[in-house]
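In practice, a research group might receive sequence data for several interacting partners and want a quick structural hypothesis before committing to experiments. The following worked case mirrors that situation: the sequences arrive first, and a predicted assembly follows.
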Amino acid sequence: MKWGRGVPLWAPTRGRPYKTAMRRQPILILTLFLLILIAALFVATLLGTVAVSLDRIAAIVLKRALGISLGIEWTDAQESIVWQLRLPRVLGAALVGSALASAGVLFQGLLRNPMADPYLLGTSGGAALAATLALLVPIYFGAIGFSLVPLAAFLGALGSVLIVYRIARIGARTPITMLLLAGFAASSLMASLMSFLMLLNQNTLQRVVLWTMGGISAGGWDALAIVAPLIFIGILAAFMQTRNLNAFLLGEEQAAALGVSVERQKFLTLVIGALLTGAAVSISGLVGFVGLVIPHLVRLITGPDHRLLLPASALAGAFFLVLADLFARLILAPNEIPLGVVTALIGAPFFVYLLRSSQREYAF
Amino acid sequence: MSARLLTAENISFGYATDLVLRAVTLTLRGGDRVALIGPNGSGKTTLLRILCGILAPRAGSVAWESRDVRAFSRREIAQRIALVPQEMNLPYAFTAHEVVALGRTPHARALAGESRADRDAITRALELTEMQTLAPRIFNELSGGERQRVALALALAQEPALLLLDEPTVHLDIKHQIEMLELVRALNRERGLTVLAAMHDLNLAALYFDQIILLNAGEIVARGAPRDALTVETIRAIFGAAVAIEPHPTAPQAPHVILLPRA
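A structural hypothesis for the assembly, expressed as tokens:
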């Protein structure tokens, strides 16, 4: 493009890039996070109320996953503990953690609000209400009962975000403030409906309460086979939004001036976030704090650039929840404490400490 | 005369029922350096937003090089037109460098990293705005003037053909006002970057711009060289303020506006 005095407007240049460009080291950080996660997966598979030695675990996993035989003997009970119970649960915790942390990153970026978490726009209320309904169904319809809960939770989470989005929409626009207020209204409404249902059906009360406190379900490989692809696709889709999310942090107007189709981007981000949250809660119930704390924690290490923040949070969220679930299983073994209780017990004090010691990262 | 870059025809716009802009028609040609002047609420910011396509006019049309902007994607417009807003703030702690890098958004592919062209454009933007010491600092901790410089660098990293500025000197002290406008003028003179800036300070507008557009109550009332547009009569008519106009001591083409107190 040439104008006026014949000088090409933005002719290619070659300058030495500024050093500050390399402030963060994405490859180093992601590799480190991945290694830590893998270590946590190992430890969590190794530990449990029934001791199974490391070589036996390795042998069982290799045999079942790849068909390789190591010539080590094990019992059927050991095989079923490692392969049917522990491994799906550990991987489930990892998936749930990465999905919630990624959704947290999406919502905190889209809403430009550090208080945002995956449950802010009614997902938790919708999932809980739908799950409660599903828990009530067996009373009336008997047999098909229990496997309805995950599906209901998933649809409830997704549906409530769509409803909130629809309520918040004014003409062609969906202002962020309206989204937050509509999310709050919808959450309150669904919470009260749920309380009402629980009062009417006191015999399901305990199951509902337990569900809302979170815990990786014993759905085994069948559940993972459905949820894992959803979560992987969701995280990949989320990663594709990261550049636009960065622009979003400048405000909607400036994002538009930088070429982002603001309303489309908003809807897309909400749907991806709701999908991830729905997939997670369908096998875990309402695990709190991961989606809020992990993005903040990771931001302290990676900086706020979503292109690094998102994948790093996905890995860190997985790591955190694998460990939290391990605590939940072990601390009062053979009894379990709800996973949501553990995440909040570890998460909340640590979070407060971090916020107070790193106020600089926020515009306080 | 150089080619038409941006043409707005009969633009009307209203936020609620009242019209903020009434049948505004204006053309920017390649290499123009124009100041947009008018009282508070005259529609300057709204006009800039419409010209860069982030607001759609209620009536009328905007064309880029004779092609309707509605035929462009948002991204394609952002590759051609950059807007420097009055104020910019971020909820998280980005460095100034990272903020400038956001200027590459319209040029980047979703999954690709930073290309060579991206890095070069960012480096040039940082160098043009002399941000060597600013680049590693946290954006939220910068002064208003420094943020304004980062906002300009962000727009330059976009490599636009047309630069829209919304009161670029409003938060700056006089030294930084002059630096900012001299940089904008140099980009216009040396590279042919087309500039349209909403300005409050009549004297700065007269000094640093070739042409002035006077906007009042959503209508363009005059356009011309500073000396023709800024007269005692037009200023009284538009701003309701009494002024005297003297020639500038060192820049004879620029009228110098002196405010006369009422009593």
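Before designing any experiment, note the following. Chain B touches chain A through 64 residues (CB under 8 Å). The domain at 1-80+160-226 of chain B is CATH 3.40.50.300 (Rossmann fold).
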